[in-house]
Design brief:
This protein is an alpha+beta fold. 26% of the residues lie in helices and 24% in strands.
Amino acid sequence: MNHSKKVILFILLVTSIQLILSVFSKEIGAYYPYFKNVNLISDIIVKEKTKKGTIKTKPHSKTAIIEGFVINELDAYQKKNTLIRFNADTLAPALPKISQKLMQLAEGKKVKIRIAWFGDSQIEGDFITQDVREQLQNYFGQQKGVGYVPISCVSSDFRRTAKVFTSGDFKVDNFKKQEHGAGLFLSGYSFYSSNLEVDFRDNVKKNSAQATEKWLLYGKGDSIALKINDFVRKIPANSEFNRVLVETGTSNKAKFTVYAKNTPIYGVSSEPQTGIVLDNYSFRGITGVELKKINSGLLAKLDKSGYYDLIVFQYGVNLMFQPNDTNYDYYYRGMRPVIKKFQNNMPNTEFLLFSCSDRAFNYDGQWKTAIGIDSLIQTQARLSYDTNIPFYNFYKSIGGNGTIVKWADSIVQLANKDYIHFNFRGAKAVSKTIFKALIGDYQKAVAYKKSKLPVSQKTTVNEKETVKLKQDTPKIKPPKAPISKPKEINVTGPKTPTIKADSI
């Protein structure tokens, strides 16, 4: 009898858990996509229907002519090797602000451009980003530096461009586990220690006469104490984002001890005094939705100080964990608020959304590109369209269907046998493709300047125009304002902040 009661209680418990997962499937699925197919009540829920609407163009048209301008429509997401700004003039740069600052660099002006590059394990260990960084710095003849490096992470052991050696105990908060209430940095990490010795090395190759600045980055708390060459000083931690210079000169090293039991330490940044800084923010196993955990106050502080000119989101392969998945609407619902949060708190920063790259599964004994990859890329394109940020079809640009299989199975391998990740040769190869797209957008800005045409940032469609979406996909809301004739606008990027004393 007791045995029967236990069985009944177990069944009731499991059923209750499944019902909870079913009722909150949208919310849970956005963060834990493994549970998105658990829904006992799906047959009795009426799905929301999207209103029908069309753009008055030919079927499958990628562009439309509106008021004399050739405009990218939603189907333009299929273009490769170019940055796409939807509902905008195809001849205009997708990233006008950063292009303006790049032109200033090319003219020999002393400006600093900072890029935050978010991604998963595909950019872990500075893969891809290390080569994009080097190519950009070489192209514009600029000084070099590795940028941001966390105190510790899963890729620390195999990262080549930087090393951080530590002595002393420290506690870690991250996207997966957070015990302190001070918040996480953009990397998804925050570190706490009452006595942490740090030995930092910037291994990026540079001119031996070039100086770099090494900054300790930290957040809001009571204060920190910093020890350099036996000299200890106490530093306030009043802002969501602070930094203090720990070393400047031609050496690639910086040694110091930090005491920050109740203040989050973010990491170290090694950067040139002028030029291009590209920060790698990789975190293994995430989809980008986790970035919602970053405090709005931190984003607003970074924007107010003009810290970042461009933020890149490169995610996708971790969404394809089931070989037969083809519906990624749950990702749209989870990721759109993340992008809007960044946009609302960082209005002076430009954004760029990458599609996923190629990924393969074993279908009937043969490795093939995931059958849902086109659906996922369409979802990512809709995210870009709806939030009005440029889009880059990474998948198409590196070769599209079958690329990862070909690269993994070739004699000279460019990808690993997991049919997901590039090896160091593949990472270098795709970085060249990305670099060409970035430079192509910069060259559009140069051509605009030479032609003395106003830069059209046309980003609206008529109220009566909308995009026809499949059932159960989020509706793209058309803006209220009608299309107006393009005017000449100022595309000068945010000013590089002047660093005074020890913090921004």
